[in-house]
Structures are given as structure tokens and as C-alpha cells.
Amino acid sequence: MALSNEPLDVVVLGLSITSSWGNGHATTYRALLRELARQGHGITFLERDVPWYAEQRDMPRPGFCRTELYCSLDDLRDRFTESIRHADLVIVGSYVPDGVEVGAFVQQTAHGAVAFYDINTPVTLAKLNRHDYEYLSPHLIPGYHLYLSFTGGPILRHMEQHYASPAARALYCSVDPELYRPMDEVEKHYDLGYLGTWSADRQPTLERLLIEPARHWPQGNFAVFGSQYPPDVQWPDNVARRNNMPPSDHAAFYNAQCFTLNVTRADMIRAGFCPSVRLFEAAACGTPIISDCWSGLDTLFEPGREILICATTAEALDVLQHLPEDSRREIGLRGRRRVLSEHTAAQRASQLVEMAREALDRLPSEAGSTRVTVRHVPERGR
Questions:
Q1: Which among 356, 296, 354 is positioned nearest to 155, based on CA atoms?
Q2: Which of 349, 347, 277 is nearest to 37 (CA)?
Q3: pLDDT tens sequence across 155-190
Q4: Are 235 and 166 in contact (CB under 8 A)?
Q5: Cα separation of 208 and 312, whole Å?
Q6: Whole-angstrom Cα distance, residue 136 to residue 232?
């Protein structure tokens, strides 16, 4: 095991780092692991080789970590047991295929600290409540020395008190300021834009804060970029549409907007303290954000100064049509300063290392007590 001032050997089993197609996990892992590497730590990323990502790999060989694909649980055991056993920290991410079985294997094998990285904590809790153990089951949670969560606030205490997590900690998403920055060369094409895949629970807010304003203000220019929108959505003529946009184009899209819209999933609103990476990406570009409201948002950005909160079509239209240009720019700049001071990938990497070292320090007293020996993995809920 690494000493307190030595680099860590980190193994991550995540949904994907090679392909950002249809998932936000890849950009999260890329930013976080790149910064870990810059800080001198060694990283191996293990990814299940699945056809839908194999056909859409936009970063097949990241230069900042060793990346290996495995085709089955047996392949994982045969080829990577030693790497997992001797790592200082092993992280299993949410939505990893066969995640319960993978987690059990990691807990039985690793000699260092083991962590679960939940990029979808409210969704995970809803699944656990339904006895749907797609990638995590309750009996595994006490065996993870760290439960790293994209969601902070009260949900962390719930994980410790209800599911016996030894240490539930917020590790929010983050942004790479080298990729997301103001681009003066990009012209403003849209008064308001939105980047996101369709979901039934987000659609009413999108209708209220973008589609209806577009209908009421035909002179305005709007954009919705994202996939899986059903054909029966009635788009006004002044709403530009694009089904897919690679992450490499996101920063330019944010820079092309006078304002960008943030819409939050219902599970995330109920949980609170659950920022989307889109918030930090847009803010890092200096683009003012119009957002729905949820508990904990004011701990990340100051409403009215660093972010704008709107609940109705009339409120959104008032911002778009009447906010002075100097005020618009200042809100964007304040939001960017807040992100650069608190929400960069480098800061998240430092937080992760600190939490990992604390978990390693606890290992002697925890060994043999919190780790679960799994003899039978229950069937996943349907």
C-alpha cells in the first residue's frame, strides 16, 4: 500500500471511458482520471467490451491511463485479479454490466480500499427500493469502504444509516476548464439553448421554459440538441434541432448561446444536491444558466448573481427579452468564477485522493469486519 505521500495505484471499473455515446460517464471519468494522472497517480481503467460502445469509441486509447477491455466476468478474473488485488484503491462505478457480481469479486479480491462511485445516486436508490439490483445490491454496500456519490446532502446520511455504508461522501461531477472556456470567436446564434437527451420527466420543464417561450417570441432563436425525442413533439419553427452532439462540440454550443437551460430529472429534484455536469460545463464557458429549482442548488451557485432560477414561461421570457446585456455577461462571469474556484476536475481529483487516503488509514481496524464474503449473489430484480 502507498504511504501517505506516495502516488496511489488506482483501478477503476466503469461503464465506459472509451465511448461517450449515449452516456455522461465517459466525460466524467476522462476529466477525473486525467487530473489524477497529472497529480502523479497510476490508473488502470477496466471496461466491459460491449457492441454499442465498440461502434462509437471517440477515445479508444486515453493517453492518461492504461485502458483494458474485458469480455466477461471470467475474463476479468483471469486477466486482472492481480491488478485489483494489489491496487491502493479500486473503484466500481454505477451501471457497470454485471455490477453486483463485479462488486462482489472486487470486495473479495482487493487488499486496498474499495469504493463504489455512484453517478446516478437517486436512480440507484429508486432501484434498490424496487429490489432491482442491476449493478448494486444492499448486501454489498457495507463492503465498500467509500460510497462516492454525485449527490450530496441528506442522501449521504441515508446511505450510512439505512444501508450501513462506512463512509458516504459527495464527489460531484466536475468540469475540465481546458475544454470548457469562453470562446470569443464563436458568435451568439441562440437566445436560449438546451443540451440533453429526451426524458418524460424533464419534458414538461423543457416545454415551459424553452418551447413555450419560443412560441411566444417568434423573433427569438432557440435550440434543443439531443436524441430520443419522440416524433409527436411539436417544435416551433424557431427551435433548431440536432439529434446528437459529440462532447468535443459542447463548448462551442454553449458559447453560441446567450443563455443555456438546465433541466433536472425528477429523481434528482426529489433528492436535491444533485448537480448535472451540464451546469458546470456551461458555467465554465461563461454562459449564463437558466435553471429549474431544487434543494442544494444555492450551495453551488448564488441565485440571481451566478445563476438564474425560472419556474414559468413568463419568467423565462422576461429574462430573455429584458435582462440588460451587461447584467447577462456579469452573471456568466460570476458563474464561471464559482466553477473555477470549486468545481474543476483537478479539485475533484484532490478530493478523491484525500478520501482514499482516509479510507486506507481505516483499513487495519476495518479488515475482516465490514467486507462481506459473498457466497451467493441474489438474482437481480426485473
A1: 296
A2: 349
A3: 999 999 999 999 999 999 999 898 999 999 999 999
A4: no
A5: 6
A6: 36
